[in-house]
């Protein structure tokens, strides 16, 4: 007998399809909900159940009627219900009953225990930070086997994709704990204020104060995305807040927000035409750019003033609605009441330059004159922008000179001279802008400063502040703002760099995204092989040693869990013999003992090069493992890729033939196999012949 499951998702405009209502975020109401359902299932909603009774229908069948307490005043889009036969674990935090629901076997196996352990502390952390009590008597978090939205902050009944809430023993080296902490924090953050303000667990923020309308959605999601990282760092202290935030939020959106035509963060209402356009607002601009702008705001105000303004804003608009100007007003009131932080313009004027205009600036520093200029950072430099702000932002500049932090400066026009930034002839006189990457912009240095920064790094590679700043220099090279030689100047010290976080940034910007084909990369490949490989040796050997002898040491190394695959894949791609030997060694260990698990951190690379360095024996073993019905989807995906790494033409052709089989693969897999083979050095010709023959 199959289990049934119903879970609602009302955001943004689906409540109207469930019950008659004025389905607008500003039209808040209280809700009385009653659900008639099969008695062998449990019904959940936003509020606690106050009564469960029985009724018989005209056929004599018995039904359960679950009646829920009247809700608080809230928007339609966060009403919710779930009908399931799940089990739960529970704990109480400051009078708030927290229950985490999941499939019975998942609960029994302890897969949701980690989520239960962090949910209460995140609630308490936010309550203390924002000086607001959570207004509901209970909170249910439900792990759904399949949930397209990923997670949703329904007030009192949060829903999650299983992978965002479950921590399995096999997740030990996968960074899964961090994902759960971040996602849970986001949704809890929303619970505070109907502006969907604080991602999932942070979302009581969004449920208490809601945006007036969807054009200010970033107020909900951007603020929640910002606070989710504060909450995650609180419950997982080993997570470096700055690094994880840069890595998950700032860097990805800077790579995306540089195309002509990318929308601005806040839109005017008349530009939003219909529900389908509205759905498109739930994108990286809303979440990541919103969080990045909030990060910058908190940095130039100081977190103390920012939180003080948020508390005032939340208290004023609780159970009500607000727009971004209301937030600026409350920040302005806090700024005006003190004299420590001086701003060059009103909060509204500064922040509108970031929220109402698309893209972001690149700042160019001329060291000789102390002049800084700004222009919009674009992938295609020759495109003209047509926004009303004439491509200028009001930019907060945190900076240091020769290692000493300096008072913040502001660039409020296209070009400005800063006498304090004029430097002497000494090669030890250097300047670094956007310290800690607190601003949402890139920096471009002249040759003189780049040489001096490279000199400092070579002498003292532990200038981590500067290393972070390299993350902004390399993309400038990628998009044509500086020459590759200038960018490479900054990498001379890398043999002494032991932070995988920094190495990942270097590889991300110097090494092609698709590593397989050396043919397409004939110009850069020999340079990287000659130049990069020798600098990679120390960090490679450090981690290879841990993989061979002390794998458990990596259990708490989040960045190794996330980035080691890229490091090892690059080392093998560039032909490092020890990397190829390690692949053969671990793959042979797996063949000899199929219950052995190749470390998940580098499984994809090991399987690929284990097959590449082997013969049909290694290939056939992977094929047998793929064909086993108990393989997980993740294992199958890795093997589907790895089987294309064979270096014998006939094996690749046979693989393509297997790919046509309806019984072995879905049609999606067939196209994946062709693509995987096509990008290999010997695979392009083979794949082309195969496709034309079997068209």
TrEMBL record:
Stored Pfam families: ERAP1_C (PF11838), Peptidase_M1 (PF01433), Peptidase_M1_N (PF17900)
Binding-site residues, Zn(2+): 186, 190, 221
Cofactor(s) the record lists: Zn(2+)
Keywords, comma-separated and alphabetical: Aminopeptidase, Glycoprotein, Hydrolase, Membrane, Metal-binding, Metalloprotease, Protease, Signal-anchor, Transmembrane, Transmembrane helix, Zinc
Lipid bilayer topology: Single-pass type II membrane protein
Compartments where found: Membrane
Peptidase M1 membrane alanine aminopeptidase domain residues: 114-354
Cofactor note as given: Binds 1 zinc ion per subunit.
GO cellular component terms given for this protein: cytoplasm; extracellular space; membrane
Site (Transition state stabilizer): 287
Annotated family: Belongs to the peptidase M1 family.
Name the record gives this protein: Aminopeptidase Q
Organism: Tinamus guttatus
UniProt lineage: Eukaryota, Metazoa, Chordata, Craniata, Vertebrata
């Amino acid at each position: 007998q199959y289990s049934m499951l119903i879970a609602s998702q009302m955001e943004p405009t689906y409540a109207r399809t469930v019950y008659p209502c004025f389905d607008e975020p500003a039209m808040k109401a209280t809700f009385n909900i009653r659900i008639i359902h099969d008695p062998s299932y449990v019904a959940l909603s936003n509020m606690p159940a106050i009564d469960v009774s029985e009724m018989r229908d005209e056929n004599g069948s018995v039904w359960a009627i679950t009646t829920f307490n009247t809700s608080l005043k809230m928007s339609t889009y966060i009403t919710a219900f779930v009908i399931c036969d799940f089990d739960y674990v529970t704990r109480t935090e400051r009078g708030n009953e927290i229950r985490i629901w999941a499939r019975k076997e998942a609960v029994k196996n302890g897969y949701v225990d980690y989520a239960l352990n962090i949910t209460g502390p995140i609630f308490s952390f936010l309550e203390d930070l924002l000086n607001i009590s959570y207004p509901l008597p209970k909170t249910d978090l439900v792990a759904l086997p399949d949930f397209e939205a990923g997670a949703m902050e329904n007030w009192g009944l949060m829903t999650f994709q299983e992978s965002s809430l479950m921590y399995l023993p096999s997740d030990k080296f996968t960074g899964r704990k961090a994902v759960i902490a971040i996602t849970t924090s986001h949704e809890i953050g929303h619970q505070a204020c109907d502006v969907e303000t604080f991602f999932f667990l942070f979302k009581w923020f969004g449920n208490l104060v809601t945006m007036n309308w969807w054009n200010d959605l970033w107020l909900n999601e951007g603020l929640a995305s910002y606070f989710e990282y504060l909450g995650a760092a609180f419950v997982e202290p080993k997570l470096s807040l700055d690094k994880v935030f840069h890595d998950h939020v700032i860097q990805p959106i800077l790579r995306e927000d540089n195309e002509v035509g990318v929308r601005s963060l806040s839109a005017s209402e008349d530009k939003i035409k219909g529900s389908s356009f509205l759905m498109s607002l739930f994108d990286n601009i809303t979440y990541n750019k919103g969080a990045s702008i909030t990060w910058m705001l908190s940095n130039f105000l100081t977190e103390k003033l920012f939180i003080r303004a948020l508390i005032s804003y939340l208290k004023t608009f609780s159970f009500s609605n607000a727009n971004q100007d209301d937030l600026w007003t409350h920040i302005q009131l806090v700024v005006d009441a003190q004299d420590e932080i001086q701003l060059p313009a009103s909060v509204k004027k500064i922040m509108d330059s970031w929220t109402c205009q698309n893209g972001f600036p690149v700042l160019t520093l001329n060291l000789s004159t102390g002049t800084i200029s700004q222009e919009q950072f674009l992938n295609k430099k020759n495109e003209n922008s047509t926004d009303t702000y004439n491509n200028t932002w009001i930019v907060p500049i945190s900076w240091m000179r020769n290692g000493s932090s300096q008072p913040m400066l502001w660039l409020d026009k296209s070009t400005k001279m800063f006498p304090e930034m004029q430097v002497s002839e000494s090669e030890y006189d250097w300047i670094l802008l956007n310290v800690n990457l607190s601003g949402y912009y890139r920096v471009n240095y002249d040759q003189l400063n780049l040489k001096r920064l490279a000199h400092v790094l070579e002498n003292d590679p532990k200038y981590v502040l500067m290393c972070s700043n390299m993350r902004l220099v390399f993309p400038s090279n990628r998009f044509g703002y500086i020459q590759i030689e200038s960018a490479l100047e900054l990498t001379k010290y890398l043999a002494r760099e032991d932070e995988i976080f920094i190495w990942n940034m270097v590889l991300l910007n110097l090494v092609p995204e698709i590593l397989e084909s050396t043919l397409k990369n004939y110009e850069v490949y020999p340079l990287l092989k000659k130049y990069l490989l020798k600098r990679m040796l120390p960090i490679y050997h450090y981690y290879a040693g841990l993989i061979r002898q002390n794998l458990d040491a990596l259990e708490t190394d989040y960045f190794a869990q996330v980035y080691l695959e890229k490091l090892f894949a690059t080392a093998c791609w560039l032909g490092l013999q020890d990397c190829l030997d390690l692949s053969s060694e671990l793959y042979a260990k797996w063949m000899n003992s199929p219950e052995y698990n190749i470390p998940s951190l580098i499984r994809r690379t090991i399987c690929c090069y284990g097959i590449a360095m082997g013969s049909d024996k290694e290939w056939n073993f992977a094929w047998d493992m793929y064909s086993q019905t108990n393989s997980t989807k993740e294992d199958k995906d890795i093997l589907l890729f790895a089987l294309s790494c064979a270096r014998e033409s006939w094996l690749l052709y046979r693989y393509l033939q297997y790919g046509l089989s309806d019984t072995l693969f879905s049609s999606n897999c067939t196209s994946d196999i062709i693509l995987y083979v096509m990008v290999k050095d010997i695979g392009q010709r083979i794949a082309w012949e195969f496709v034309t023959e079997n068209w």
